[in-house]
Amino acid sequence: MPAPPVEAISTAILGAPGWARVGITMPDGRLRAQAADALARAIVHGLWHIPDTASEDQLALPM
What we know:
- 56% of the residues lie in helices and 0% in strands.
- It is mostly helical and 63 residues long.
- Helix 1 (6-14) packs across helix 3.
- It holds the Pfam family DUF6771.
């Protein structure tokens, strides 16, 4: 699988929520980890268009 172009990664990072871009610089490890997860999700979604998981506000349907 070829590496994605740098421009696509940059666009995905800039499309991430602002709190996540700032949050990766926080001194609190827990907040930094949450921000890194959000940034990673934005990059993956931006490069491979994988749908986001259900939000915390949605009710889970039994399978």
